[in-house]
């Protein structure tokens, strides 16, 4: 088992496969058939800080948010996780005794779950042929998350709040739940949630959205925002 884990780590570190590489549907069906399926209602924490880091999750349906909190309970949204993505994959490569972030469902979700120990056993047996493809998909996702995290850190360090909010709105236009609109792209998000992504107060978000609306860059109606010119 330890040898297989070492081989997985080495394969991940040396992989130069295209970022878009992913297992074919048949491979994923075989993988999912060997996982435990669970359903969670919306706004439910499925992972909390301190939970054992011993399970890989795959989003079959739904959307989740990965968050971190400070000692005062202030929350920062690190990433959104959507259908077809993994959660908890870092523990396959880096030893973690416990989880450090909160993962909360944004919508009702169906998840496929498998313990790391069970996954390693499957990759030595029934999933031996699918192992390289699944591993490459996980590595690709880790790479994308690292890029997003790097951008987020850079924005926090070098951009003012106005620019951070503007960039965040553009990022949200790329999410699966964004909708096309005659004037651009329509997203639905509260000021509170934007503040937790950007790292500022809800009141500041409201002021910046008002400025952007006055500049005809967005249209706002409650939680609905149309970002102009983004189709």
From TrEMBL:
Residues 38-123 form the Cyclic nucleotide-binding domain. Keywords: Activator, Allosteric enzyme, c-di-GMP, DNA-binding, Repressor, Transcription, Transcription regulation, Virulence. It comes from the Bacteria. It is found in: Cytoplasm. SUPFAM superfamilies: cAMP-binding domain-like, Winged helix' DNA-binding domain. Coiled coil: none annotated. InterPro entries: cNMP-bd_CS, cNMP-bd_dom, cNMP-bd_dom_sf, Env_Response_Regulators, HTH_CRP, RmlC-like_jellyroll, WH-like_DNA-bd_sf, WH_DNA-bd_sf. SMART domains: cNMP, HTH_CRP. The keyword Transcription regulation applies. The keyword Transcription regulation applies. Residues 159-231 form the HTH crp-type domain. Gene3D superfamilies: Jelly Rolls, Winged helix-like DNA-binding domain superfamily/Winged helix DNA-binding domain. NCBIfam families: PRK11753.1 (NF008732). Homodimer. This is CRP-like protein Clp. It comes from Rhodanobacter ginsenosidimutans.
């Amino acid at each position: 088992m330890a040898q297989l884990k070492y081989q997985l780590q080495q394969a991940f570190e040396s992989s130069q496969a295209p970022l878009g590489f992913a297992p074919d549907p048949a491979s994923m069906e075989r993988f999912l058939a060997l996982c435990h399926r669970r359903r969670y209602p919306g706004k439910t924490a499925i992972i909390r800080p301190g939970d054992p880091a011993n399970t890989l999750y795959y989003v079959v349906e739904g959307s989740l948010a990965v968050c971190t909190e400070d000692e005062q309970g202030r929350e920062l949204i690190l990433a959104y996780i959507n259908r077809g993505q993994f959660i908890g994959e870092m523990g396959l490569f880096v030893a973690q005794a416990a989880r450090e972030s909160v993962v909360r469902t944004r919508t009702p979700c169906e998840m496929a779950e498998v313990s790391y120990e069970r996954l390693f056993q499957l990759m030595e047996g029934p999933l031996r042929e699918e192992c390289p493809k699944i591993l490459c998909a996980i590595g690709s996702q880790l790479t994308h998350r690292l890029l997003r995290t790097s951008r987020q850190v850079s924005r926090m360090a070098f951009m003012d709040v106005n620019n951070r909010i503007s960039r965040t709105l553009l990022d949200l236009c790329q999410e699966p739940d964004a909708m096309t609109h005659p004037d651009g792209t329509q997203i639905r998000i509260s000021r509170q949630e934007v503040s937790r992504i950007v790292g500022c107060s809800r009141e500041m978000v409201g002021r910046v959205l008002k400025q952007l609306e006055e500049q005809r860059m967005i249209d706002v109606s409650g939680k609905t925002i149309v970002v102009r010119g983004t189709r």
